[in-house]
Automatic annotation (TrEMBL):
This is Uncharacterized protein. InterPro entries: ATPase_dom (IPR011579), P-loop_NTPase (IPR027417), WH-like_DNA-bd_sf (IPR036388), WH_DNA-bd_sf (IPR036390), WHD_MCM_arc (IPR048907). GO terms for molecular function: ATP binding. Residues 15-214 form the ATPase domain.
Length: 349
């Protein structure tokens, strides 16, 4: 594997830079029981976590919550947990042992009235001494089951360490409610490791080294153009390098394909808003067209196309887009967080 391989990295030699984030994750796991890893889409969260877990040789279970159905149930979570355990020998042994051995459940106060719930609690109790990685954990908020209570149970009654990750940072913290006195996880100590885009110099170094690994030489202008259009997002830089090395495509064609991919992901996310989807789409179109948009410009633009929108509805809409990681607010103006998504919205939404 090399820098441009599209899969999440698992070996340190394939993992570019991020020494600071690596060290922060290492310190947090050594000192505490829960780490929250955040960063927008394609910032390298999964690669950081997987590389660290494999290089440190810690026993762990990795759950990608994107694989769960849109409405998460206790049984679908249990099935994912058990499926991941079957991917290694110690996990298979653990599952077999649970069939014949009782594991004492802590008195956390969860009502163990269902077979699926009892099975999960016993499995978690048996994971003592390992790390449970829950990636894209904000997905768990789409459930009638209180998964934040389950996380609190793990924290309070087991020797399992937690890495909780999410690219929709606002939604992740809305789910965890770590600062809410009424929430199950309130008061539990945790560390945050936040990933950011690469600096321009680091992004250039990444592309140059990746091209060297592919034995490719490209015009300096192609690299500069990529730096201008991809804004240090390592996932898009990887996509660009991989497409350049394997597809024989022009850089403009690569941007086009990436923008279609980004918009397809956006459309899936916006479907969650049902009848409100057109307003979300319109707000994103206005923001993309203007480059940055004020509250008044968004309200005026949406009403011109779709009719009256109340201030409270617009506030909720913008909060959701911000928490989902699609927009940011800076000095009173809203902008798209992803340059490739902006390109896609302008041409494909």
């Amino acid at each position: 594997m090399n820098y441009f391989s599209p899969e999440p990295k698992k070996r340190k030699e394939d993992f570019f830079d991020m020494e600071y984030e690596w060290s922060a994750l290492d310190r947090a796991l050594k000192k505490g029981k829960m780490v929250v890893v955040t960063g927008l889409r394609r910032y390298g969260k999964t690669s950081l976590i997987m590389t660290y877990m494999n290089e440190s040789r810690k026993k762990y279970v990795y759950l990608n919550c994107r694989l769960l159905p849109s409405v998460v149930s206790l049984n679908s979570f249990r099935a994912l947990l058990e499926e991941e355990l079957t991917k290694n020998s110690w996990g298979i042994r653990l599952l077999r042992s649970l069939k014949s051995a009782e594991v004492q459940l802590g008195g956390f106060g969860l009502k163990v009235g269902r077979k699926g719930e009892e099975s999960i609690l016993r499995t978690l109790k048996a994971l003592e001494g390992s790390v449970l990685v829950i990636d894209e954990a904000q997905t768990l908020r789409m459930s009638a089951y209180r998964f934040d209570s389950l996380l609190a149970y793990i924290f309070d009654t087991t020797d399992v360490k937690l890495i909780i990750s999410g690219s929709e940072v606002g939604l992740l913290y809305r789910f965890l409610r770590l600062e809410d006195p009424e929430a199950p996880l309130y008061g539990r100590t945790y560390s945050e490791v936040r990933l950011n885009p690469l600096s321009r110099d680091k992004a250039k170094e990444f592309l140059i080294l990746g091209l060297e690994q592919e034995n490719m030489v490209v015009d300096e202008r192609v690299i500069e153009d990529a730096l201008e259009n991809l804004d240090g997002v390592i996932g898009w830089l990887t996509y660009f390098g991989y497409s350049l090395a394997t597809g024989g495509l022009s850089h403009e064609k690569i941007y086009e394909k990436a923008s279609i991919l980004a918009v397809d992901e956006l459309k899936k996310a916006l479907k969650l808003y049902g009848a409100g989807e057109p307003r979300y789409s319109e707000a994103l179109k206005i923001t993309a067209t203007l480059g940055s948009a004020t509250w008044t410009e968004l309200k005026t633009g949406i009403e011109a196309r779709l009719g009256k929108i109340t201030d409270s509805t617009l506030s909720n809409l913008l909060r959701n887009l911000k928490d989902s990681g699609f927009i940011r607010k800076d000095e009173g103006k809203y902008t798209l967080t992803d340059p490739i998504l902006r390109r896609g919205i302008l041409t494909h939404l």
